[in-house]
Amino acid sequence: MITFKRAQQLISENIAKLPLEKTHINQLVGRILAEDVYSKLDIPPFNKSAMDGYALRAADPQSLPFKLKCIGIVAAGGDFRKKVKFGECVKIMTGAPIPEGADSVVMVEYTRKCGGYAEITKEVKRGQHVCLKGEDIRRGQKVIDSGTKITISHISLIAALGRQFLKTISLPKVAILNTGGEIIPLGKKLARNKIYNSNGPQLCALLASDNINCFNLGVAKDKPSQLKAAIRKGLEYDVLLISGGVSMGDYDFVPDILKSLGVKNIFHKVKVKPGKPVFFGTKGKKIIFGIPGNPVSGFMAYQLFIRPALHKMMGYSEPSLSFEQGFIAKDFCKKGDRKLFSPIKISKDNSRYYLEPLSSHGSADIYTLAQADGAMMIDENISCVRKNSQTLFIRWKKI
Q1: pTM score
Q2: What angle do CA 23, 27, 29 make, to 5 degrees?
Q3: Per-residue pLDDT tens for 253-264?
């Protein structure tokens, strides 16, 4: 059995980034950019109006109010071929190009229409309400660095550059296999001594939170021949997540079957609770996780081991597992000598986080997991922590 820290190191050492691919702008959010993005145009690409109003020359007489002859109108996307001269103006819409000769825009709220003239009721300063060509981005300017995680706020910029596709690191193709003779799929009648498959939907939801589709291989019974066929199918994917069958029971066949199929055992069993029986292996560039069948253990295995592995494959540079410091709201003691990740409610007062330990019935207590905001970490060599002492925690809900 290895330590949590050693398990993290081994996962990192045995994972490589996935190949590059072209990704459409509609699928870019959450992806890691694999190219520097440069602008091939100025933004704005022309001098344009920031307001609805009148385009004019700021140097024209300004003893308020004053009248200017309106010689036309220009809409967004339109073109106005005349030059604005002394004593003239052009009615203009937001986003429309500034006509030649004009250098400013007065908002329509500060004008009155008088026949073929516009009466200006407020002082005009040169350049007001005009967006100048290239004032936001210059042609040839680098606007996004390779390695950036694309967020929603990047999309308008990318579209404005005229880019439909960008190079990104591929998303992993992840297969999920549930095991166990007691599991039945949702939608079927619950027979005696059976339970519904909660691990499959949970893993698919966790993958979806990381922008990854899951390929569900269904449920394999605890029979070596059936398990081997299902696992062989799962090894066609970049990542295989096997739920159940990795402990030490008479029906826990998964580790031996993986070995028979050429999977290299990197580690099996980590000194953590919950999640001790977790298995990690590789076959070429493919990675395989065997996680305990208890849903809380599976959930924590994803947080602690699987997500960091997937994020490294996807090219993430920032840590996927982020620990924060919090204050225990009441005394708490643990049993055993494993590193414990215990469910908590989290509150915040100013800049301090306060951690309320939740009573749990163990690694099958899905009700407590549903109430929890995160988990606090209690080290192997600590048996009790006292109220107001500090400890590290992770969270999966916004506070």
Answers
A1: 0.85
A2: 110
A3: 899 999 999 999
